[in-house]
Specification:
alpha/beta; 10-stranded mixed sheet; two-stranded antiparallel sheet
Length: about 200
């Protein structure tokens, strides 16, 4: 489920189409949290929930709480920019109780590319090139989290919770995205990894 507080709901979703093109993810649906907050039952119809924003959430605290409830009930979450933004992203337990694998303190508009990363991790299977224009800055890991990918400026790009419940991607997936390279593949691989599906890692 793509929880997209963004124009994807009105104008067509590029990342939804990219994920559908892989042909191995089953249903990939959109939900608009600009206007309402999903219930736990809504989220539990899906194996993985991906959340981002380019607008404010209808209820930032409520969406953070229901995401935490979903994880507690066995669900898996991928959270991304600009939902990571501390001032107008999601709030609630997902932020305050550190369900997210990384936090940011600000953001910048400045193209930055993939630096060091764990080439053996399934999330980076087949990934060699990512450049992102919208970057969260002042990134840091939350407790019991591991950084597996970094930008060339040293900021975190991808982090995982050690219990395998959450992947945090410091990149913007929404309608007005300006990334190049294989950020869609990173997201695709993260979905499979969270869902427990093996991916081939080139050695």
């Amino acid at each position: 489920l793509l929880l997209a507080a963004d124009d994807d709901n009105d104008l067509g979703s590029p990342i939804q189409a990219m994920l559908q093109a892989y042909g191995d993810l089953g249903a990939i649906d959109l939900y608009d949290p600009r206007t309402q907050t999903p219930t736990l039952a809504d989220l539990q119809a899906y194996d993985v929930v991906v959340v981002w924003s380019n607008y404010v959430f209808a209820d930032a605290t409520a969406i953070g709480n229901v995401l935490a409830d979903y994880v507690d009930a066995g669900g898996k979450v991928i959270d991304t920019m600009f939902g990571l933004d501390p001032s107008w992203g999601y709030q609630g337990r997902f932020r305050t109780e550190d369900y997210t694998a990384m936090k940011t303190t600000s953001y910048t508009f400045n193209t930055i590319c993939l630096g060091t990363y764990d080439t053996g991790h399934p999330i980076f299977a087949g990934v060699t090139d990512v450049c992102e224009y919208y970057e969260g800055t002042g990134t840091y890991l939350t407790p019991n989290s591991t950084g597996i990918g970094y930008y060339t400026d040293g900021e975190l790009f991808v982090a995982t919770k050690d219990n395998g419940t959450v992947v945090t991607i410091n990149g913007y997936l929404g309608y007005n995205y300006q990334w190049t390279g294989q950020e869609d593949l990173v997201l695709h691989n993260a979905i499979l990894w969270l869902a427990g599906v093996e991916t081939d890692v080139p050695w």
